[in-house]
User: What shape does this take?
Amino acid sequence: MTAAIRRESVQDLEQFRIEARQWLQDNCPESQRQPITPEEQFYGGRNARFPSEDARLWFERMRDRGWICPEWPAEYGGGGLSPQHAKIIKEEMKAIRARTPLYSIGIWMLGPALLEFGSEEQKQQHIPAIINAEVRWCQGYSEPGAGSDLASLQCRAEDQGDHFLVNGSKIWTTGADKSDWIFCLVRTNPDVKKQEGISFLLIDMADPGVSTTPIELISGESEFCQTFFDNVKVPKENLVGGLNQGWSVAKALLVHERKLMSELGSDSPREVLAPNAAAREYLEMVDGKVADAQLRMDLVDYDMEMHAIGLTHFRTFEEKIAGERSAAPLVMKYVGTEAEKTKSELLLAILGSQGLGWEGEGFSTAELDTLRLWAMSKAMTIAGGSSEVQLNVIAKNVLQLPQS
Amino acid sequence: MALVLNEEQRFLQQSAREFLGDNAPVASLRALRDSRDPLGYSSQLWQQMAELGWASIILPEEYGGLDFGFTGLGLVMEEAGRTLTASPLFASAVVGASALLLGGSETHKQNLLSQVAAGELTLALALEESPHHRPTRIATSATADGDGFLLNGCKTFVVDGHSADQLLVVARSSGDSNGADGLSLFLVPRDAAGVSIQRTIMADSRNAANITLEQVRVSAEDLVGELDHGWQVLEPVLDRGRIALSAEMLGIALETFDRTVEYLKEREQFGVLIGSFQALQHRAAHMQTQLELSRSVVLQALSAVDDTPEQVPLMASLAKARLNQLVKLVTNEAVQMHGGIGVTDDLEIGFFLKRARVAMQIFGDTGFHKDRYATLCGY
Ligand SMILES: Cc1cc2nc3c(=O)[nH]c(=O)nc-3n(C[C@H](O)[C@H](O)[C@H](O)COP(=O)(O)OP(=O)(O)OC[C@H]3O[C@@H](n4cnc5c(N)ncnc54)[C@H](O)[C@@H]3O)c2cc1C
Ligand SMILES: Cc1cc2nc3c(=O)[nH]c(=O)nc-3n(C[C@H](O)[C@H](O)[C@H](O)COP(=O)(O)OP(=O)(O)OC[C@H]3O[C@@H](n4cnc5c(N)ncnc54)[C@H](O)[C@@H]3O)c2cc1C
Assistant: This one.
């Protein structure tokens, strides 16, 4: 799927870094180097508008350069670069605090799965549209009765000769009301072991019979929806990976989802406050030390954890380049999202009553965001496979403990 | 790449594992303990280890060393953690050798380092004066006396103190009783007049001693590093020691954990293997996550010694604090998950439990290193 993994010469990489740095310096507008607010995130799609002229410029330059998805094959609009090159772009973007030009479930989840399992026609139809921000995708996995036990899903697709007829509902579909297409797990055979009767379907949400209802969250946002399918006709060519083969696609995609979630802590899109910076601003300092001994220790625990997590991300990357396998990637979702929750609790504690403002006067945007992010952080250890499910996976696949 | 091993390093680790597994398993430590061995380690084993080059891994070739890098030494420490091998590896080949390398005069290096490399000379750092690691709170005095100095004071928890040939004594030559300025390091032969050594029997059955210095005469040539500026040598030496100990603790945690997971797959209760109980599975899986993070930290800390010295203080405190916490968690869980036999002396898990507690205290407990890490981060 991605460009072949090669051992790149250090010299080539250094040269590339210099060029990338220069290009970013010349092409990333000043306004796109500021912390981003949720409203300013560009997700693309049929009805999307750029939050600003600079955001448009920045996206288009990155797209034309092939750096929206640097590792994807050039024939579908990707950059055709190695993981090392992609990492350099990421690092150099981070160094100037460049915003992510395009937020996209298509990039994070669907694209890698399509590149691995999709037909040539599917790749040509969907991959460039993802990179060019023409189509916004959402994920239709969970159902009211199928959460952690995803394979027990009931939303069904009946074979009607030239198309599938889809009926049922999905829940917790992030961004469904703003999306153009949805990738869905559907039941195509109810009479076999549950994992063996599942297929992976791409569904155009403009098709008759698809509807969504937003759900309000404890953060006050309504990021996700329940999505209903009422006699929706889906063309046969939208099946990915073969009839009843959907579970393999689903699992491969989950790997990407978990990797993404494990990295949220290290490059959170809307990070406004870092705990140690906030500490200096909000807490009493005596002789250069945080005076509150408990908070100081909480802070150091968090910083050490993030330091260790960062090094472990780095190790998994090096292992990938070296063609080695270890258990490290399997633990990252758990440690990353647990740390994200810890961080939010820590920030709330550091901000004191200034961290408790829900809206309006008396609080800065950063303070208000801190509380909303704190509420959102609770979802991180549930979505994409809960912490308990992650521990089950480690117990089974890494430690190979007996299953009851 | 710092976080994956190269082929030579992998080979070194593999051969260390085989050698120690064959020649110095935990049973050897038990035998040393039960026979109340006067030396506390096998000198024959130490000779073999030296022949394998382990006493000289970090030393430059000009002093008879292998110049293989600190990561190599860390890998041997990790394996020695798995077998709980008692030897002068830490006190001599890590701490002593580093001190001479970083602070020793050319004469020290020429005369002593090659002996350390050959395993013929053993060293011990006489630092602590209280039950907690306080490396700048030094009351032991070095007062000028003619062209030399007189040392007076009491040292405690001196690792290998009763077996080492020479002591590296940290003394105050000027300044307040608590401060990095005014410290000096001296080499003192164990049999020098005025040195009295009392062996202490510790929980881990490894070597330690209390040492009293009474009017001990040393000459200016015995000074390691500059007078009053011993901290410039001592701090990096301590950091290397902390990082090497972290590697040993990683080995302790890995071995204890492996044995426990094996037990979960053997022991039946309620008609099933106890490893099928989710209450135990989740705790084991959580430990696995902590082991993965700790491995990255240790590898980075080891390579920092050779490649990025400016990172060493922060990495040393990160590694020591995290590995302290890790071995505490893993050894406690190991005992618990073994049930009744977990608290028996027959089972070797108890040896890991006890060594872990001693290693946690050497060169700084968890609180010490969290405080230092926070201070280095500017809060
Ligand atoms: C912010 C957010 C965004 C999401 N976005 C999407 C999306 O876009 N598309 C989509 O399809 N889904 C999405 N989800 C759904 C998510 O995948 C599910 O919430 C998740 O799989 C958990 O399922 P559940 O909510 O039904 O909880 P349940 O599975 O009912 O879990 C309840 C509790 O039981 C525990 N539990 C369950 N099984 C076990 C077990 N075997 N062992 C031990 N403990 C167990 C869980 O850990 C949890 O604590 C999102 C969720 C959140 C929070
Ligand atoms: C100091 C001491 C004194 C004792 N004195 C006596 C005495 O005088 N008389 C006497 O008869 N006995 C005595 N015992 C034995 C004691 O009652 C048993 O050790 C205890 O019942 C545990 O059994 P076990 O050792 O076989 O461990 P196991 O039952 O094998 O347990 C091993 C591990 O598995 C866990 N485990 C087991 N089942 C489950 C489960 N269903 N779910 C989750 N986890 C599980 C345990 O918590 C433990 O961590 C003594 C034990 C000790 C340590």
